[in-house]
Specification:
Layout: E1 13-17, H1 26-33, E2 38-41, H2 56-68, E3 76-79, H3 91-110, E4 115-118, H4 128-145, E5 151-155, H5 168-176, E6 184-189, H6 190-195, H7 203-216, E7 222-227, E8 229-230, E9 241-242, H8 250-259, H9 261-264, E10 267-270, H10 280-291
Parallel strand pairs: 1-2, 1-10, 2-3, 3-4, 4-5, 5-6, 6-7, 7-10
Antiparallel strand pairs: 8-9
Length: 292
Amino acid sequence: MVKLFHISIYSMKVGLHVSIAGSIDKAVDNAIELKCSAFQIFTRNPRTWTFKDLLTEDIQSFKKKLITSKIDQYATCAHMPYLPNLSSPKKDIYKKSLDTFVNEVKRCGLLDLSYLVIHLGSHLGEGTEVGIKNLVNACNIVVEKVNNNVTILLENTAGTKNSIGSRFEELKQILEQLESRKRFGICLDTCHAFAAGYDLRDKDVVDDMIASFDRYIGMKELHVVHVNDSKGDINCNTDRHEHIGMGYIGDKGFRAILANNEIRKRLLILETPIDNRRDDVGNLEKVRELAS
């Protein structure tokens, strides 16, 4: 008889998107201080097109700190900046987005980060097929230009107007067109999934969502889960993150999400707000409480 082992809370890789203010190696210090067993960063200012190259001493310091920390290299990821639109039909924006994408994969490789999470972008009204074609083209160009060990993760969207990748069927369609499949995977955002219509408010519907993901995409493709509650109700199609348990998914939903063994195996990253109701430490503690 096959025994099913539940993933212990102590072996779960859970963390936050941490700041790189000062220098990029400070991210490791921040992750340790916040008691993270995983973390996510921006490799530079995410709100501008311009950026400076990483300094050799900062790269070395980042890698040294990571090695001496208790955080596994495979529990690290970066997120693409906000401005790029890899699905854009506008040639100037698309070129700038592609250049940024190439540079981000290179930067992640220099830092020995395991994953780069990318937003899939908007077709700006030109149609889903146009958006997917542009995105796939960008992904294929990047892996041709940059040969390193960084796994690029497609993040599901909330279903906002003109966006692509809110449904598992679309994510499957994108993955099937990529030329170097081993370089890609999926990051599943709970807020985005809920906003796009996937119910996550109790065990049965969470299990249904996981089964649907496995049917269309396959669990082996899921590497990172962004653990975020939603300020909007189910099917709202708005990307607005809320503190864990304070949104429409709620405590019951996250208790079910975090009880699922397939979720517990993955890298869990919080991208929750910081305000007078709760801070990063409070959200991390809440996740561990609900997971236990």
